[in-house]
Each structure stands twice: as structure tokens, then as C-alpha cells.
Amino acid sequence: MKIKRFSTDLLDTNCYVVYHANHAIIVDPAGAGQEVQQFARGIGQVDAVVNTHGHADHIWRNAFFVEQFSAPLWIHQADAGYLSDASLNLCDLLDIELPKMEAQRLLKDGDRLQIGDAYLEVLHTPGHTPGSICLIGDTFLLSGDTLFHQGVGRTDLPGGDSRQLSRSLGLLRKLASDMTVYPGHGGMTSIGPELHE
């Protein structure tokens, strides 16, 4: 399984294309629409658009990619309401407008997302939002806004909860120290320097 990162202009949010055997998913389509589209088309089939949580900077281009690839939209069940609520998804705060959307699949902890012959596992990590998730691959973690290089997700936004985030970070501490972390913002890191040291 391979990962391609695209840094976007909206709050420096990372969008990822995860792919294997001519199949791909697009994770957190914050922007870089044409560039991501061209790269994904070169791989083959886009099986889904996946949001690690429902904030505007991570769902901004959902509609574009769902339409371009006729792909279903997936988000954790606890953040499904964020897709259409401007006060929850921060559109009101950021002064942007997004089309209201509904997810075709509501994810839950332990779900497996197939990409070609490989899988990502959904780990529910609430705290930044009630439905924040991380996606676990064989040697890497897509952490959304749960964990960053030298930082963790904010809990002072609607739906944030510092106690839940602390418990979620405890789950991540159980992962291998050398597991590569691809966060929602900023550069990549690994579990060890962030949570074991």
C-alpha cells in the first residue's frame, strides 16, 4: 500500500491518496482538486472518499471528488451530522459555504476499508470531534487531527473533549513506536517521538 500527500491552501490541511493494485481512496479532500484528481485517475479506480472527521478543512472538496469519481462518501457515524451543519463543521467560523452532503457509509471502530488487496482499519479516536478516526495500515497511521508532529488535536471547538482525546492518545500509544504517522496538518512523524518518549 502506498500514500501520496497533497498539502492544500485551506489551513495547510493534508489530503492523502492511499492506493494499492489500481485501487485508491481519497482521504480528507481539503483542496488541490485538479492535482489530486489527475494523480488518482492515473492509479485507476477511486473506491471512496473518506473523512477522518467533519471539519470544513477536511471535507471541503467532498462534493467535487464524489462527483468526479462517482465514489461514495464515508465518515464515522458520530460525525455524520457535521457534513450538513455549518456551526459544527466550522463553515460559519471560516466564512465558507459547502454543499450539504450525506455519507453513503457510516464508519465505526474496527471497520476494515479494502483498497485493492490491502486493508486499512478504522480506529475511533474521539476528542477533536466525537467522530474523529485514525486509519491504520500495516506500517503507517493516518491520524487526521488527533495527533501531529509535536502536537495533538484541539478540543476547544464544538464537540471537542479533552478527556476523550487523552483516552484516544492512550490507544495510539499501544501502536509500534516506528509506525509512520501521516497527520491532518504538517509533516509526517512516527508514534515513538510523539507518544513514547
Sum up the overall morphology in one term.
globular
In the CATH hierarchy, what is the class?
A: Alpha Beta
Task: Summarize model confidence as the mean pLDDT.
Answer: 95
Percent in strands: 25-35%
Q: Structural class, from secondary structure content?
A: alpha/beta
User: Judging by the overall fold, what is the CATH architecture?
Assistant: 4-Layer Sandwich
List the helices and strands and how they pair.
Blueprint: E1 2-7, E2 14-20, E3 23-27, H1 33-43, E4 45-50, H2 56-59, H3 62-69, E5 73-76, H4 91-94, E6 105-107, E7 112-115, E8 118-124, E9 133-136, E10 140-144, E11 147-148, E12 151-152, H5 162-172, E13 180-183, E14 189-190, H6 191-196
Parallel strand pairs: 3-4, 4-5, 5-6, 10-13
Antiparallel strand pairs: 1-2, 2-3, 7-8, 8-9, 9-10, 11-12, 13-14
Keywords, separated by commas or semicolons:
197 residues; alpha/beta; Metallo-beta-lactamase, Chain A; 6 helices; 31% strand
What does this structure look like?
- With 197 residues, the protein is an alpha/beta fold.
- It has helices at residues 33-43, 56-59, 62-69, 91-94, 162-172, 191-196; strands at residues 2-7, 14-20, 23-27, 45-50, 73-76, 105-107, 112-115, 118-124, 133-136, 140-144, 147-148, 151-152, 180-183, 189-190.
- The strands form three sheets. Strands 1-2-3-4-5-6 form a six-stranded mixed β-sheet, with helices on one face. A six-stranded mixed β-sheet has the order 7-8-9-10-13-14. Strands 11-12 form a two-stranded antiparallel sheet.
- The longest helix has 11 residues, at 33-43.
- The chain is globular, with a radius of gyration of 15 Å.
- The model has no long low-confidence stretch (mean pLDDT 95).
